[in-house]
Every structure is written in C-alpha cells, then in structure tokens.
Amino acid sequence: MGIMKKNAFTLAETLVTLAIIGMVAAMTIPPLVNSYNKTVNQVKLRKVYAILAQIAQRAVAEYGDMPYLDFYDGSSDKVQEWYLTYFKPNLKVAKECFDESGCWPESVTHLNGDSVSNSSARGIGGNIVTFQTIDGTLYNIDGNIPSDLDAQFGIDSDIDGLVVYVDLNGNKKPNVIGKDIFVFVYTYKGFVPAGNDRTKEFVAQDCSKDGSGMMCASNIARNNWKFDDVNM
C-alpha cells in the first residue's frame, strides 16, 4: 500500500481565510451592534416617557398642586423642592447632584455638532438638579420661562415649565442631544416631548443632521417610537 497523502492548509491559505473572515466580521458586526443599540434605546426612551407620565399622575393625585408650582425663581430651591417631592420618591435614585458636577457628562453637543452653550459637567442650564438612577440613566431638570419654552423647546405655554434632559446611556458617548440625550417638558399639559406644539415638518427639520436635536423625542414619538438613521 502506498502512503496516503494528507491534505492541509498552507500558511498562506490560512492567512487568506482569516483575512476574509475579518473583512466579513468588519462589515457585519457594526450594523448588528448598531441595530441592537437602536432597539435598546427605542425601548428605553419609551419607558422613560412612561415613567415621567406616571410621576405627573401620581403627584397630581397625591398633592393636587403640581401644575401650579413655580419652577423658575432664579434659584435652585424650587427645582430641588420639585425633585425631592415628586421625582425622588418615584424613582430608584443612585446619585444626586444639586447644581454641581458628578451626575452629568462633561460636554454635550447638538445633532449639528454645535456645543450646547450652557452645558458642563454640572449639567445643562442654571440652578439645576441632575441625578442618576440605578439603571444608569441620567436626568437633568431645569426650570424655564415661557419664552424659552417656545423658542428652544417648541412648547406653547403661558406659565413656567420644567425641562428634563434624559441621557439614556449615562456618561457613555456620544452625549449628543437627539442621539442618546432626549428632552421632555412639564407644563400644565403634563409631560410632553419637546416639540410637542410644532408641526411634523418643523420637528423633523430640528431632528435632522442640521438641527439642534432638541425636538427628536417628539419626532420619534410621532414615528411610533422608531429611531431614524440620524438618531444613531
């Protein structure tokens, strides 16, 4: 009997195979990761909105005066009072910061790449409360006057409102309003996404690569809570 010859891959063939596998992985894994993150954020954003709505309902049922609180008085006292009375009892808070750093990313940008002018590690706004829940979500709450609600957040109101920025993935990047940070506003209407009182076209423009991203929560809500490509 002759000696049977065993077939084997050469080093060159092995390297070529590994290179092909690497290229296929490079092309397929990022889209899969993005798709997974997109699904996670869609679910989490909808959950956050439900939580805010529940907080408003519980507060009104218990206190009866939530729609008439004076949110904006030039100091952090009212915002802290609102947080301690209505927010904290209804959320599992892991860490809280009263107008100080430690509970918010160091810098935040808009969808169009512009830096948020009043953002720092302390948070967005002035006289604010920021806090982190046990699931890693960051919240930033700040009182705003009617003219700011109109100009910046697309909300028509003749009373002060409370603006809530929510960072779905905590300190992880990108820290961009409209991608992982979304904005909700509380007025006499309860909690609504920023942009609630603007047209579909207006909101879509704000939630584009050339927009601020402030009204993306409204754009997503109107799209059955589905993210567009710009939100990823």
Describe it.
- By secondary structure, the chain is an alpha+beta fold.
- The protein has one domain (11-231).
- Helix content is 37%, strand content 17%.
- It contains five helices and eight strands, in the order ααβββββαβββαα.
- It has a six-stranded antiparallel β-sheet. Strands 2-3 form a two-stranded antiparallel sheet.
- A hairpin with a 2-residue loop joins strand 2 and strand 3.
Structural class: alpha+beta
Described by its quaternary structure, the protein is single chain
Largest sheet: 6 strands, antiparallel
Overall body shape: elongated
Total domain count: 1
Order of helices and strands: HHEEEEEHEEEHH
Distance between the termini: 65 Å
For the secondary structure, the number of strands is 8
What is the number of helical segments per DSSP (H or I, 4+ residues)?
A: 5
**pLDDT < 50 stretches:** none
What is the average per-residue confidence, as pLDDT, rounded to a whole number? 85
Q: In percent, how much strand structure appears in the residues?
A: 15-25%
Rg (C-alpha, Å): 23 Å
Helix content: 25-40%
Lateral arrangement of strands in the main beta sheet: 1-4-5-6-7-8
